[in-house]
Amino acid sequence: AQAILAEGKAVGLEFENFPVRRTVPPLASVGALAFARSNFRLKMARHTSRSTGKLLLALASLVCMALSWFSWRPETPHGSLTFIGGGSPGAQRAGPRIATQPGPGAVAPGLRMPQAAAADDNTVAIKDPSPVEEVLAGISVAFSLLPKAIACSSIVGTSALAGLWSSVSLGVTSLVGMRPGVIAGSAAVVVVPLGVFTKAHGLELVPLIILIATILEFLAGLVGFAKVLDLISAEVLAGFLNALGIALLMSQLGALSTPQGAALAGICAVITQFLPSAPIPSSLVGLAVATGAGYALNLDVPTLAQKAKDPTTFAGGLAALPKIPEIHMPTLDDLTLAVPVAVSIAFISLLETLLAARLVDDKKCEELCSFFYDENGELVPPPGAEGDEPLADVPTETILSLAAGNGLSVLAGGFGGCGLVPQTILNLNSGGGGQIATGAYAASMILFALVIAPLVGQISNPAIAGIMVQVSLETIQWQPTFDTVKGVFENKEGAIIRLGVLVITTLLCYYVDFAVGITTGVVLDLIAQGKIGGMASRA
């Protein structure tokens, strides 16, 4: 039943009378986990032996797994399934919908969403995740991002918690303006160029670089940079996601280098993939079970605390609060060094954030981040809005929210970030997608740093890697890539060009740079369409 529901959301199915019965209240599993944590958190940190802490964590993990398994029991669906929105399911799954300017006489299409029929007057209602499910999804996302935030801090060369507070800043500002469902935080695409800079010039200019990038992002929002999404075809987006998924998968190989680590990561990945995500996100259950299994079997695997270079990273307390950095008036030499790096960071941050927003649209069968035009080429706002027209469209608001988050991260001693495609996918798969999940993610990161840091530090690093392995496999666009290759063998018109764009974009994003790969893919697309160089007209 859960698989049918997920598949229906992906292809635009209308669900009628689709009950799901839970024999145990969702809060029961949460309460069990919270009770276990509250009873051994401080004891594990300071007053009990390491073996006792391992045993308690293992028992809590097993209880969490058992309650999650037994609290989800779907009934056989007995309602009707009706496809809405036109086209076949196969066509809908072929790739993300990219809004383009229709020809003369065309009109802006309406929103196409999965709907649950419930009345005779053709009014429909979509069942949103419960607040508990949203909160748990946010917690799951925070756990997956925690080691990445610490690793980003290491790349830049700042304190270990700088990446965490950067993620908190972006999470807080995402509550206002960011496309619901998008998770923003510390990102490798931001810290890689920043890390190269700090190795050569030190950390003094890092706040200046992020401030300049913030200004550029804010200006991009004002001038309508979000409309660049119309230039990104399904093949370019698939190529970008393929490269991102492969890079994410390869980055986890270190945690899988030992048989014990690979086994725990495999357990976590399998649970995350196949266990239903209601009422507890499967990734959170997998994390608890894999970590508990490692302690119960006394496996020699590293924890987050052991991987952190700074031993005080998981000490907790008020000492973990961020400190406002000193910002000096820049000189001309400072600007000469900082501006090129800031431009690169701003550009890729904008692209990845907008692509994450478009991915949420595709996953939820919504069109909040699409642009439509009338027969005169004038921009038409999405239909269905009631009341006064908003000051800005959703993609532009997303950009402005990103700029605000990066600016706030400077005050928190961080180095900014952007929208994160892997964590966004994890959020949606875990039952999130609204502001509650985003707020829970930001609040969880704060609690990780200040309150439950000693307990969080005992989480198994391979267990985190297992979640990211599953997310990486989910990120890779298997179906769109297969459909593109299949089109070549079926001699469909333009299939070879589309495959070439997809492959070139993937290779450049993976081996060179994401910004270079996306830009090249867009240019090749425009050339193939005859919008640059007149290739199509000559053909």
Give an account of the 3D structure.
- A hairpin with a 6-residue loop joins strand 3 (115-117) and strand 4.
- The protein is built from 22 helices and eight strands.
- It is globular.
- The chain has a four-stranded mixed β-sheet, covered by helices on one side.
- The termini are far apart.
- By secondary structure, the chain is mostly helical.
- Helix 11 runs antiparallel to helix 18 (461-475).
Would you kindly provide a brief summary of this structure?
With 539 residues, this protein is mainly alpha-helical.
Percent range for helical residues? 55-70%
Q: Judging from the principal axes of the Cα atoms, what is the shape?
A: globular
User: SS-based structural class?
Assistant: mainly alpha
| Oligomeric assembly | single chain
How are the strands of the largest sheet arranged? 2-1-3-4
Keywords:
539 residues; four-stranded mixed sheet; two-stranded antiparallel ribbon; 22 helices
How are the SSEs ordered, and which strands pair?
Blueprint lengths: L1 H10 L1 E4 L9 H22 L2 H21 L10 E3 L5 H4 L22 E3 L6 E2 L5 H26 L5 H12 L10 E2 L2 H14 L4 H17 L11 H18 L7 H16 L7 H15 L7 H4 L24 H33 L7 E2 L5 E2 L13 H18 L6 E2 L1 H9 L5 H16 L2 H4 L4 H15 L2 H12 L5 H17 L2 H15 L6 H4 L1
Parallel strand pairs: 1-3
Antiparallel strand pairs: 1-2, 3-4, 5-8, 6-7
Helix pairs in contact: 2-3, 3-11, 5-6, 5-7, 5-15, 5-16, 6-14, 6-16, 7-13, 8-13, 8-14, 9-18, 9-19, 9-20, 9-21, 10-11, 10-18, 11-18, 13-14, 13-15, 15-18, 19-20, 20-21
